[in-house]
Amino acid sequence: MSRDIKAILHIKKYNELFNLFMIAIIIAAMLIMCLVFSTNTSFDTEGLSMILAGGIIGGYVGTSMFFKIFFIADEVPRGLTFGMTRKKLFVGCRIVDMLEILFFTLVAFAFIKVIGVSMILKVAVALYGVYMWVEGLAGNSVVRYGKIAYWVYYFVFLFAVIALPRLGYFIPSFGTPLALAWDFFINPFFNQGIVWTSILVFDLLGLIVNWLTFRKIPVNYAS
Question: Which terminus of the chain has a lower count of CB atoms within 10 Å, N or C?
Answer without folding.
Answer: N
